[in-house]
Amino acid sequence: MAHEESRYSRQVLVSWIGEKGQEAIMNGTAVIIGLGALGSTIANILARSGVGTLRLVDRDFVDWTNLQRQGLYDEADARNSLPKAVAAKEHLVRINSEINYEVIVDDVNPGNVERVVAGASVVLDGLDNFYTRVLINEACVKLGIPWIHGACISTYGTLATILPGDTACYNCLFPDASSMTSPYTCDTVGVLGPIAFIIASWEASEALKILAGRKDLVSRKLMWLDLWKNEITSILTERDRECPVCAAREFPMLQQHDRVMTSSICGRNAVQVLPDVSRGFDFESTLHVLSRAFPVEFNQYLLRIHCGEHEIVLFRDGRAIVFGTSDPKVAKSLYTRYIGG
Amino acid sequence: MDRKFVYLDNAATTWPKPDVVYEAINECVRRLGANPGRSSHRMSIQAEQLVQEARLLLAKFFNAPSPDHVIFTLNCTDSLNIALKGLLRAGKKAITGPYEHNSVMRPLRRLQSAGVSVSVARGTEGLRVDMDHFRELCLQGVDVAVVSHASNVTGCIQPIAEMAEVVHQNGGILVLDAAQTAGTTEIDMMKLGVDVLAAPGHKGLLGPMGVGILIVGPGLEIDPFREGGTGFRSEDDFQPRDLPWGLEAGTPNLPGIAGLAAGIRFIQSVGIDSISAREAELSRALCEGLRNIHGVRVFCPVEPQNGIVSFTIDSYDVALAGAILDQAFGIGVRAGLHCAPATHRAIGTFPNGTLRASFGYFNHFGHVERLLSAVRQLSASN
Ligand SMILES: Cc1ncc(COP(=O)(O)O)c(C=O)c1O
Ligand SMILES: [Zn+2]
User: Fold this and answer.
1) What is the pTM of this model?
2) Do B337 and A267 touch (CB under 8 A)?
3) pLDDT score, position A263
4) Cβ of B323 and A321 within 8 Å?
5) Which of A75, B111, B218, B349 could form a disulfide with B344 if both were Cys (CB 3.0 to 4.6 A apart)?
6) Which among B74, B77, B310 is the best mutation to test ligand 1's pocket, defined by most ligand atoms within 8 Å of the CB?
7) pLDDT value of position B1
8) Which residue of B has its CA nearest to A314?
9) Is this complex scored with an ipTM above 0.85?
10) What pLDDT does B210 receive?
11) CATH fold group of domain B271-380
């Protein structure tokens, strides 16, 4: 290559990276699961950093509400409803054509999560729901792959780096996550662009440490940051000696059927979404949150919201029928975005 | 209110099954665990005896030409595929009715693209095949006519004997899809003039899922699409033509066959007439009740003939109403097209479909009341 100076020279100059660290980065594989606000920024940073292989995973398609904070996409992607993983790769190739990209347009579930993360040096969380994080945690702990949990909503965000067998795992931190749903999502209570960029950058930085062979430098705390209140908090985390995942290595969720099942409705452009809300579904608070964000129609049996060309009808027990699609992936994604995940 | 779940989806598969069916399956798996007709040891022979007895039972039950013509399959879809794909090839003429299930329509459409001519008879206001049109189509030539005995959407029973006569006069054979009648409506193959009968074991015959039957009339050649071990004429590299082996390659579903046989014995002990009468009575009560609810439309013959009732509620989308009946009222009905889009086109409920309640022998008037009360509340709520 006839570059005057290596494109990575400024990064190599950072003392804890150096030539050796850069070489390790260029031989590494990062898997980014979820390519929304967090994932697209993470992908942008890691592509520019020269990570050898980026595996881009998302089930969703670009829409107009994404453009405000999902830094990789543009109006043409939204107009064409491109799959996020495909659109992301197209933009990233123009940023760095010298690295490998693998694109997976699919839902992450117990049947494929181990394949999705296999071979990774590090896995990064760009997700919008608890359940998929639980799956990623189990798969990464099982296969010994470090992963970085990041999440943000409204004006705040959180981060934790998980080194299997060393730091607390996601289940140690959030033991109830597998049975939680929360109606507070970016699509119901909103999210500020900057918090997403900050959390994403933070995740990417943790990933670069791991990729460069400096696991010793990662955060061993659960970090919390609120931009509106100017607050940063951190909690030292501890492994749960009885954690079914990282201590007993039982991996319960990897062995269960997908927690969010769907069934197509015979003859209709509609999909039924059947989440297993084992702790009961909080219809009232979902109704409350949704009705502050959207015009909601409801009666004693159901509530109905319109989102773009789709319509979601939610029943009291948490199941929903998504009209306007026959694709279970789209229905699950809309459910996660509007009803919670 | 009794919160126990009310199962009203017996047209999809019957539930519960009689206790004797559960017992027969259990007994078979525990004590007759050998492969029937393959080995000469005693357990294999006992297993083979069970299969033979079941064939005999079925042959008598449907007045079939011979027990050897009773073929065990996976389900009714499998039976129909074996029959249609084994009877029809390029240049042949097939005729079907307006109220068919996808397990008839899809094989026919596929065969059509391979050169089989396929004609579809029209229906009448009364939810029956238009016999004048059917006759007209037969006069233009017919090799195979395939029709459902009763629609799985409306429950309406078709004039099979009359159709068989017309088909035979024109040199064709009649294949009957008895998915919704086997076990709940008397079927005498000879009397009706049915040449090939396809039926599921898991619906009205009260067996478990995973077993179906195909009964082939005398002198008919059905080309098998599945070939393999039969435990019969093993020295030959080619699949034998002799029935039942010709159409039954591979190890059969012995526990399924045991359960099916027990189901049929149960039906015989109760009497098929009293099963028919009971299901029709429940349907009659439901139809009457539904017709009195404002904004509810019923799609069912004037006099219900079996346990199937389709309806819609004006104020609710079918899919939503189905979900509400389940989650707010604990009632399981089926919503949508019921795999029979052609029927919904014919009765004007395409593409939304209908709600379908379907009764089995174990339903009672209390269940009808539960459903009626739920529909009343629903139609008043929106
Ligand atoms: C009229 C009709 N034909 C065929 C079938 C297919 O039966 P099976 O599910 O046993 O394949 C059904 C089942 O719903 C049916 O109602
Ligand atoms: Zn743990």
Assistant:
1) 0.87
2) yes
3) 87
4) yes
5) B349
6) B77
7) 40
8) B320
9) no
10) 98
11) Aspartate Aminotransferase, domain 1 (3.90.1150)
